[in-house]
Amino acid sequence: DARVTQTPRHKVTEMGQEVTMRCQPILGHNTVFWYRQTMMQGLELLAYFRNRAPLDDSGMPKDRFSAEMPDATLATLKIQPSEPRDSAVYFCASGLPAGPNEQFFGPGTRLTVL
Amino acid sequence: SQQGEEDPQALSIQEGENATMNCSYKTSINNLQWYRQNSGRGLVHLILIRSNEREKHSGRLRVTLDTSKKSSSLLITASRAADTASYFCATDSNTGKLIFGQGTTLQVKP
Description:
By secondary structure, chain A is mainly β. In chain A, 0% of the residues lie in helices and 55% in strands.
């Protein structure tokens, strides 16, 4: 049963700390997306990769956020330093290399910054 | 900026009734997709309709697309309590990414 996995599922941290979220896309998927979901803003695209190369990270605050794909099985999203306004659910999604742009979402990481 | 605008924002119906949600968008699209999100979970793809299609069915789901009005609707027939969730439309404008609407929260009362 292929699915996107994300770790950790929940993270509580204090302001100023570094946060790293990890995502394992579905094997064979070559596009990976990072989203942030809040009640106020809804679902926002932060960054996306194709074949491990970043294609668009315009939705990401560059001063504190960074996204990478060290290899095809791992995508990371880092926040350093974290702030209370970063509290949200962060989703990773992956997509097939060809065909319609259907996305498969992971269960999300719920981040709380105190 | 959001591409899709959905209405209503919230919908409450009785089990067995039909639920209709609408989505409007701004730019030309390659396809439009609907996703469901159960509380505390990730989004799940429901159905995709291409820009050259007008209607599509999948089980109890019926999706329509009117590209002249830049709008789509999702109809869930004979709703069940298990259909309680948030529903999102997402547009694909062939940029490689999807733009999601704010979603409609559906509550189906048993």
